[in-house]
Design goal:
Strands 4-3-5-12-6-13 form a six-stranded mixed beta sheet, sandwiched between helices. A five-stranded mixed beta sheet has the order 9-8-10-7-11. The protein has two domains: 264 residues, D-Maltodextrin-Binding Protein, domain 2 (3-Layer(aba) Sandwich), CATH 3.40.190; 100 residues, 3-Layer(aba) Sandwich (D-Maltodextrin-Binding Protein, domain 2). With 381 residues, the protein is α/β, with parallel strands linked by helices. It is 42% helix and 18% strand. Helix 1 runs antiparallel to helix 6, helix 13 crosses helix 14 and helix 14 crosses helix 15. A hairpin with a 5-residue loop joins strand 1 and strand 2. The longest helix has 20 residues. It has 16 helices and 13 strands.
Length: 381
């Protein structure tokens, strides 16, 4: 994995978070008693949310390359009985919410694999861990995974989608029921030049709207958008979860007027599997080549954990709070149905993710690392 460091650090320097997936964002949202939580951009992604900024400057890559020579690889660890320990890294946000049941099972000795879990509050921390070969599996913003694949000589593969879209239009004006009704309106949002903007522009353009028809007023933090909605409920804001839940809980006049994930789905042809994707799970290809059985077992356990999240939201919310992802279980429980936690693998994963990356590429090739990943990027068991 020595080749990964220069590019990963470059990605960490240049990438911005996918609204709604970042951990610090989620934690703050849960703790905030005001109209909303803290900024939805710490990050590179995702997880959301969130993601990493898609702009990877050549100069940053060169600077990172110089520092890479001092790094040493850390090989996969083994437990005292010789069993391989799978080191899993995640963000404290929606992308890791579907993993908490597996984390509990592992702590109680009930998991099939031997795991070591690490959660961080910003995507650049996690990409640095991947760069230093300190984790074998990582849950990252979707576009960041593509950037890493392109910039690391294909040293990582995506094994599943862990979170679909977490972006929602929020307003007190419930007369707005379709995207074309945004003509002549102003939408307040964060994330200029990042994947939330690209996804929203895609949906707007499909409705025949351009930048001249809809004013996008970008703010630096989700709290600013929430504050505008608090002062003027008829304003329209594009917010990620869990900010949406917090904003609605503080202002009865607000409601969700549109789910961008649903709007994305409406635009797809019958034979298209494209989905609005927030977070994915990647694996170090060196580890995958050595331990394909362990990776496949992880996928089974990840899927079971995500299903537990869907079927037992109250119990899972307690685990989420205990893990420090969201400070208060009630906030987590209210937000969970809108976080689109999932575990999509195989051909379904490839179809959903490749279609999403194509949309980003059409708007800004650098958002996915300059070129669309080839088939080898998608791990099909």
């Amino acid at each position: 994995m020595r080749k990964i460091l220069p590019v990963m650090l470059a990605a960490a320097l240049g990438l911005s978070v996918l609204s709604g997936c970042s951990s610090s964002t989620t934690e703050t949202a849960a703790e905030t008693t005001g109209a909303a939580a803290s900024e939805s951009q710490t990050e590179a992604a995702s997880e959301g949310s969130a993601a990493a900024e898609t702009d990877t400057e050549g100069s940053s890559a060169e600077e990172a390359e110089g520092s890479s020579e001092a790094q040493e690889d850390t090989q996969a660890e083994s437990s005292e009985d010789g069993e391989t320990v799978i080191r899993v890294g995640g963000l404290k946000g929606p992308t890791t919410m579907g993993l908490v049941k597996l984390m509990e099972d592992a702590e109680n000795g009930e998991a099939q694999n031997n795991y070591e879990f690490t959660m961080v509050t910003a995507a650049d921390e996690l990409t640095a861990m991947v760069a230093g070969n300190q984790v074998d599996i990582a849950l990252l913003p979707a576009n960041v995974a593509s950037v890493l694949y392109n910039r690391t000589d294909k040293q990582v593969s995506v094994v599943d989608i862990n979170t679909l879209g977490v972006l929602y239009l929020v307003s007190g004006d419930t007369s707005i029921t379709s995207i074309d009704q945004l003509a002549g309106k102003t939408v307040y949002l964060t994330g200029k030049g990042t994947t939330p903007e690209y996804a929203f522009n895609y949906i707007l353009s499909a409705a025949g709207l351009t930048a001249e028809d809809v004013t996008l007023d970008f703010r630096s933090e989700a709290t600013e958008v929430a504050a505008i909605l608090a002062e003027n409920p008829d304003a329209i804001g594009l917010l990620p979860q869990p900010f949406v839940t917090v904003a609605l809980s503080q202002n009865d006049s607000l409601s969700i007027i549109m789910d961008l994930t649903e709007e994305w789905d409406k635009l797809q042809a019958e034979d298209s599997g494209s989905r609005l994707v927030t977070g994915v799970t990647i694996v170090n290809n060196e580890f995958l080549a050595e331990h394909p059985d362990l990776v496949n077992t992880f996928l089974e356990e990840h899927e079971a954990s995500a299903l537990y999240t869907d079927n037992h939201p109250a119990e899972d919310a307690e685990l989420i709070a205990a893990a420090g992802i969201v400070a208060q279980a009630p906030i987590a429980e209210k937000a969970l149905p809108y976080c689109n936690i999932t575990c999509i693998t195989g051909e379904d994963m490839k179809g959903a993710l490749s279609g999403y990356l194509e949309v980003l590429y059409e708007q800004n090739p650098e958002s996915v690392g300059g070129t669309l990943p080839d088939d080898a990027f998608y791990y099909i068991p």
